[in-house]
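ok so for the tutorial part 2 we go from a plain amino acid sequence to predicted structure tokens. step 1 is just haveing the sequence, like this:
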Amino acid sequence: QKISYDSITEFLNKNGLKVKRDTVKRYLDLIFSSNISSKCRRYDVVGKKTLNTIYKSYLTDLALHTFTSGKKDRLDYGMLIENVVYNELISRGYTVTVGKKGSKEIDFMVTDGMRKAYIQTVYLMPTKDVVDREEGPLLAMKDGFPKYIISMDPITVSSNGIIRLNLVEDFLLGDGFKL
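step 2 — the prediction. this is what the tokens look like for a chain of 179 residues:
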């Protein structure tokens, strides 16, 4: 989920809970320092700088998803896959940011020194509309670094220079992801 101190403060104030931005920041900093959730900064690909005010948050323990989402009857598999990929990339020692190029968002921009790759995550890609939506941000990147789509699709056919990986067989257990 995208998070900013200002948006949370505004939401709470609109709903009758008067809080200051610094209070929200302190509470969120406590959550992040407790390792319940981790912060993934956004990176402006065009301006080549990290944006420090808006970031995404990922649970370090996915068992907390049902508790924090309030959705006990339906899981958001796309969000869970994105969270699994983020946690795995961090555990492998990569620097991970959310890529932003204009209005397009790339789920992850992964770096290790001078090596870099772009990753989109999605539960399944059953239609051309979904394929176009996921490939669009990756095709906008013209710098020659590897581009991946990670999903639960059993058959992974790469196209347009984008490598498709199955989450379990290729990414978690295999050696399909390389910078």
